[in-house]
Amino acid sequence: MTTISEGPDLSIHIGADDLPFVEIGGGNKLKVICVKPQEGLWIVENVFQAGFQAPIHRHTGPVYAYTTSGAWKYAEYDYVNRAGSFLYEPAGSVHTLTCLEPDTRVWFQMYGANLNLAADGTTIESVTDGPGTLRAYYALAEAQGFGRPNVLVA
Amino acid sequence: MTTISEGPDLSIHIGADDLPFVEIGGGNKLKVICVKPQEGLWIVENVFQAGFQAPIHRHTGPVYAYTTSGAWKYAEYDYVNRAGSFLYEPAGSVHTLTCLEPDTRVWFQMYGANLNLAADGTTIESVTDGPGTLRAYYALAEAQGFGRPNVLVA
Amino acid sequence: MTTISEGPDLSIHIGADDLPFVEIGGGNKLKVICVKPQEGLWIVENVFQAGFQAPIHRHTGPVYAYTTSGAWKYAEYDYVNRAGSFLYEPAGSVHTLTCLEPDTRVWFQMYGANLNLAADGTTIESVTDGPGTLRAYYALAEAQGFGRPNVLVA
Amino acid sequence: MTTISEGPDLSIHIGADDLPFVEIGGGNKLKVICVKPQEGLWIVENVFQAGFQAPIHRHTGPVYAYTTSGAWKYAEYDYVNRAGSFLYEPAGSVHTLTCLEPDTRVWFQMYGANLNLAADGTTIESVTDGPGTLRAYYALAEAQGFGRPNVLVA
């Protein structure tokens, strides 16, 4: 029981241009980079335009967001995410994403599902998760002429 | 950057009698052992009676179940969990718990939330998660004369 | 992005007799149930005899232990794990396992590696992790006539 | 058991200038953003200069790296991480970081510890983990006149 593992030596790189951004409406874009269906992990990169708003949702696992350009905020908070911002959203957090500047770019590393809520803040209208987002990404990529992207599904 | 951490030396033990089983109806019982609200982790121990059935639900994170007595199964599968069984339920799995024998005892280590589904298998009727279950456990324990249990909330 | 995932419907059951306990010396036994090499997760079940002692080690991830029979403790703590005990060991915790009663049986759900320390409590003498333990388990099982066990490698 | 959790509503934002980069030698810099000691999670941002090389190490948990400027690679692989690159390093992966261009900037979200290896690739010379790196960051920040940074320790 005290052996040393050599382990898998398989770091996987996905370069900036290895996967397409698909249009999801209004100039907003989505790239799905990595999904671990068994773990409930999904990693996406979004480009949002000013005025974009995502429905209020609650997370069932923790989320880590890395912003590289533009500006966005949660309607429920005062702070603004800009290039270089890190955001930690624990499981159970509830918020409404609003984009403030054009070409706002963010990586989201998300565990669990987004429970999208009605205006009352409690009724669940839909669920967004990794496998569903991956299916949507594949479909949009093919419809938009990118073929099937080589997402890291681990 | 090559220092060695001494680290926190704080393993926490919860003995079999340190927390009460609360009655949740029909002789079925619940003990909430550990909740990490930020991580979406919750660990419970249940005692189920024959005929108990939990609503069909989908998990948003992985679940690990350790059975120590009795017998239970998912309606969707043939295998039966008995003393010594280990069950792995990946994120996204959907099933309906049915208890087959009296005093069936199981530890569940769960990540994320249970999305309880309507009979159609897709409409979400309610959500069960760690913080909500912890509140219910506190309330039942106090109502049943156990006081407020010292659950590990980390 | 608001589709509902059907998800993988693949809960995996490992019954008490589906995998062998291999002898690791002195009547102490090991069963490796589940390894997720990419996640650093490993789940084992041990049977320890009175007097068994594991080297002092530090964990690099959290550990959750479920005891079903016998008695064991960490030399650094007063409490004793018995049937029905739950033990939480956060990342960074350091301890020396000592078995107090025969046929002590424990499930360990472990994240990361065990850094086995010299008597000085800081020098690392060896590392025990999931892939290395799995290799040892396969080798012992084959040497002891059990063939290659069907461990859940996810 | 079917209550809906309100959950903690506490997303935490760390802006680009909220925490200092400390000098770690040769113009290379470190910012420690978030440490969860119990989980073994640590999130840092580095600025590396061309020629910087980190010792060969093995990870005990998975790592996710987000590059925002410059260029770096692992000596063991051909691909180069540039602005917009995502890198996945599973638990058990072993590699030697080499920086190729000035002011290369990377966020690392790391689970578990880095086991720094001798030239033979197996002997462990030291261990780098979240709590140890946090202590080093605090000490360097104070020595370099930044005071004690308000790292997210969750």
Helix-strand blueprint:
Four copies of one chain form a homotetramer.
Chain A: E1 12-14, E2 22-23, E3 29-36, E4 41-48, E5 57-59, E6 63-69, E7 71-74, E8 81-82, E9 86-89, E10 94-95, E11 97-99, E12 104-111, E13 114-117, E14 124-128, H1 130-143, E15 152-153
Parallel strand pairs in A: 3-15
Antiparallel strand pairs in A: 2-3, 3-4, 4-12, 5-10, 5-13, 6-9, 6-12, 7-8, 7-11, 13-14
Primary descriptors:
homotetramer; 154 residues; mainly beta; 7-stranded mixed beta sheet; 4-stranded antiparallel beta sheet; 1 helix; 42% strand; disordered N terminus
Main sheet: strands, sense, barrel of chain A: 7 strands, mixed
Helix fraction bin of chain A: under 10%
| Total number of strands of chain A | 15
Q: Approximately how much beta-strand content do the residues of chain A carry?
A: 35-45%
Low-confidence stretches of chain A: 1-8
Q: Indicate the overall shape of chain A.
A: globular
**Based on the structure, what is the oligomeric state of the protein chains?**
homotetramer
Q: How would you spell out the order of helices and strands of chain A?
A: EEEEEEEEEEEEEEHE
Which chains make the largest contact? A-D, 46 and 46 residues
Number of helices of chain A: 1
On the 0 to 100 scale, the average pLDDT of chain A is 93
Radius of gyration of chain A: 17 Å
Cα-to-Cα separation, first versus last residue of chain A? 27 Å
By secondary-structure content and strand pairing, the structural class of chain A works out as mainly beta
